[in-house]
Amino acid sequence: MKPPPFDYHAPRSVGEALETLAGAGEHGKVLAGGQSLIPMLNMRLAAPGHLVDINRLTELDTLDVEPGGVRVGALARHARVERSEEVAAAQPLLCQALRLVAHPVIRNRGTVVGSLVHADPAAELPAVLALLGGSVRLARPGAVRDVPAAGFFTGLLESAAEPGELAVSAFFPLLPPRSGTAFREVARRHGDYALAGVAALVGLDDDLRITAARVACVSVGPAPVLVDVTEACGHRPPASADWASAARAVQERTAPEADIHATADYRRHLTGVLAQQALRDAAREALDA
Amino acid sequence: MNIAITLTVNGVVRQAEVPGRRLLSDCLRHDLGLTGTHVGCEHGVCGCCTVLLDGEPVRSCLTFAVTVDGHDITTVEGLAAPGGAMSPVQRAFAECHGLQCGFCTPGFLCTVTALLRDNPAPSEEEVLEGISGNLCRCTGYQNIVKSVHRAAEIMAEES
Ligand SMILES: Cc1cc2nc3c(=O)[nH]c(=O)nc-3n(C[C@H](O)[C@H](O)[C@H](O)COP(=O)(O)OP(=O)(O)OC[C@H]3O[C@@H](n4cnc5c(N)ncnc54)[C@H](O)[C@@H]3O)c2cc1C
Ligand code: FES
Ligand code: FES
Asked: Fewest C-beta atoms under 10 Å: which of A249, B32, B62, B154?
């Protein structure tokens, strides 16, 4: 099918984009990589009156490793972030997750920030932002605000970005010392959205005992489900940690729904298995760190 | 309201007047008459509409023509040498029976052309990852994978 008609705007600066978006209000939508929005338009699941194309705003095509974390501009495509050695060194989870996002050809166009704003419950990057406690920077004419991940994903395909606002960048904090991360997922076909997936972070103290362990789960709720399992793991070295009880704690916190791809029980089962695997992987990385 | 755009398609400067909602795939096929680019699903899943945008493979069904105004596009029609001699990737697909009905082939050829340019000697795993976003309902993929390795061989022999 073909997209419904809309008024097309191609601003040449961020200032112009903000003015156009403010003018369009509820009828406006941002077009970034188009890898989620255009399918929705083609299937007539969305019909914005005005489309504001940010693809000419090279000032948003930025990727900076700052002292506290990685800041990804709104026009930085998945592929660029995935291939950056600097990012891989500073925040490996971002690259680990990006390799699971769709196919390489989709990653050539899709943007990291677009994926966060789109807030698909099966998407990897919202889980990464939630797990790391990152934030998204939103702008409108004369005002900029940073929204922490905890308040950003507000529901199924819903984020805190309001009509008229442009997400200009996202910030992924660095890991504390002696910590590791991992992302594990199961999809029907390589590159598909995951049936279930778990991002994990494990931190150790100077005696190499677990002091922090948490996971963010995808596809088991309307938004990423963040679970702190530090208690359940016990304050022990990874070799003797109680991963099984941590996995049960994760399962108890998830309320997956059944659909054509999997039953709710199967999703809960997968989430438990993946949580154990991801936590073990993350702990191994922390020991090597 | 139509918007005037200029694209360089297969090295030729082309102009078109299109509405904002015109997909690049439809612009190529209907406005510019280049029907080599195929359209299967229009939601990014099948890969048969894949073209090269400034050298990088992208889904033309998930790109608006107006967004790529001023950019460079290569379609399957542009892969052969100017005299019409098939490219190494095209020859390898023909030689290894990497196609049957040919519907998926334009997308595979564009994807693989970029893949081998960036990675002239891919491993089996890299080939599978590289073509994982393209569907083929005929071949069962085995001969497509063979074609990719064969194309790499031909390119190495001829360089
Ligand atoms: C076949 C296929 C498979 C896929 N598989 C996966 C997968 O496994 N995992 C996954 O995570 N994703 C997957 N995706 C989606 C892909 O990652 C998208 O690129 C991403 O979700 C959206 O990014 P985009 O830049 O393309 O955004 P767009 O499609 O341009 O926009 C998406 C939404 O976000 C809004 N938006 C975008 N940018 C901004 C901004 N800067 N400010 C305000 N609003 C904005 C838009 O208005 C729109 O509502 C898949 C896509 C396809 C086609
Ligand atoms: S037609 Fe574009 S991916 Fe199927
Ligand atoms: S050859 Fe027929 S779909 Fe691939």
From this structure: B154
